[in-house]
Amino acid sequence: MEDATARQLESCRICASRDLALVLDLGSTPLANAFVAPERAAEPELRFPLEVLQCGRCRLVQLSVVVRPDVLFRTYLYSSSASAPMVEHFDRLAAELAQRFALPGACVVEVGSNDGVLLARLAARGVRAVGVEPAANLAAIANARGLETWNEFFSADSARRVLAAKGPAAVVVANNVLAHIDDLGAMLRALDVLLARDGVFAAEVPYLGDLLEHVEYDTIYHEHLSYFALAPLRTLLASGGLEVFDVERLPVHGGSVRVFAGRAGRHAGTERLARALEGESAAGLTDRGRFVDFATRVQASREALRRLLSELRGAGRRLAGYGATAKSTTLLSFCGIGAETLAFIADTTPLKQGLLTPGTHIPILPDDALLAERPDYTLLLAWNYADAIMRGHASYLAAGGRFVHPMPLARIL
Ligand code: DWN
């Protein structure tokens, strides 16, 4: 495939090997955050194959199709601040970075700073925080909040201009960014430009181990070009002169890891990094057989969800969804769930409310629609926040509403 908006991956993004094996095919799928204005519902939408490959040499798991970054990220409707658990998550990160690495007054640059949710919490701790965010709409929101945000893709060029204006960065943070980047070499070159000699790169990515263990196939979508285990991630950063010296396992987004890396030899490796790498190797996380099992469990997950929803609809129950997530685009498309099944999807994100879901065109309503419309059952499309959502909708539950958790096998909560 080669067209104006996407290209076929020819070689591994980390090691350039052409030994790329198909390990999962989720079918032709719309772009995860390409929500549709009702007045444009009749217009054709971009869809691309959603195929997962694994490199036979460095074992990196990656997509077969690369959609142009400006198509995906120049306007972006995912707002980190719309999820209270993410606001709390980034507050904890700000506290850790300020305490552990960035002395007050030091410069911290966040790549992919979204609406400034982390920048605000770093600034509140005396850190000179600067964002680099490609989405013009999100950069405008952050700047309007007084959070300095450069509306750019992160590159050696933009890094040089940030360096000239702000000086070297004590810390560069990239939360849910590395998996989105096609040209990882360019990212590493930009880091080399901007990071202080003893600076730290802190990167958070969804963890392949959790994806496979919990069958989180819906976290596979075109924005996520790579699916990282620790070993390939370490190889990647080492190719840019960065040595991973610490790692944290995190519960967010279905399970993530945050790695800390510095220029080679500058930081001693921690015990928990050694344990995490040993555990990953012992588990054979990137063995090909893990994906044969995964593909089988993905099909079982799909069938269980379709069966449960069909039973509920057959019993005359009214169904809705909660959380117009990027991952719901994959889940709804792969499971063939549309507006015939879900009357609406409630979501706290003002940028998404009033729009339709990509491909399936399910209306997205404000959060309070759940109690107002009171569907009998609500499919938790933001299942990664199940506890917080259940707590926040006690009145819906008290009125007899029930949530359906789709992962890994659909069940009524
Ligand atoms: O990498 C990415 C991940 C980390 O975040 C991005 N490419 C896109 C995004 O994926 P997602 O949309 O699946 O992320 P979330 O954080 O699971 O999305 C949550 C959605 O649910 C948001 O639209 C907000 C909404 N929400 C809600 O309506 N009520 C969330 C919470 C917690 C709530 O109480």
Helix-strand makeup class: alpha/beta
**Measured distance between first and last alpha carbons:** 43 Å
Number of strands: 20
State the helical fraction.
25-40%
Strand order of the largest sheet: 9-8-7-10-11-14-13
The low-pLDDT segments are none
Description:
This protein has helices at 69-73, 84-100, 117-123, 136-144, 156-166, 184-194, 208-213, 230-239, 271-282, 288-314, 326-335, 369-373, 386-392, 394-398; strands at residues 2-3, 6-8, 20-30, 47-55, 61-63, 65-67, 107-111, 128-132, 149-150, 169-175, 195-206, 226-227, 242-250, 256-263, 319-322, 345-347, 364-366, 377-380, 402-405, 411-412. By secondary structure, it is an alpha/beta fold. It has a seven-stranded mixed sheet, with helices on both faces. The chain has a six-stranded mixed sheet with strand order 17-16-15-18-19-20. It starts with a strand and ends with a strand. Bound molecules: ligand DWN.
